[in-house]
Design the sequence.
């Protein structure tokens, strides 16, 4: 995502660039979990470029480990339970 933002900045001034999605999350029956992570990736990619340009990053709750309820501490993600 950050690479796409950098590519756009070659042609669009930073103060005019708006990053959004037109992937049809709802129209094409996209799985809610996939849509959630895609939206989070957009925000996190923008934060990478913001930091590179010296701008403050935005808080992305979906990327906050303290709020991730799908991760069980102390349990490895590989293998059976």
Sequence:
């Amino acid at each position: 995502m950050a690479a796409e933002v950098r590519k756009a900045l070659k042609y669009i001034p930073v103060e005019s660039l708006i990053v959004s999605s037109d992937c049809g999350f709802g129209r094409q029956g996209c799985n809610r979990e996939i849509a959630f992570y895609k939206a989070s990736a957009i925000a996190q990619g923008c934060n990478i470029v913001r930091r590179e340009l010296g701008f403050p990053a935005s808080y992305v709750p979906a990327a906050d480990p303290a709020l991730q309820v799908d991760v069980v501490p102390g349990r490895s993600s590989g293998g059976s339970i």
Q: What stands out?
A: The longest helix spans residues 32-53. Helices lie at 2-9, 32-53.
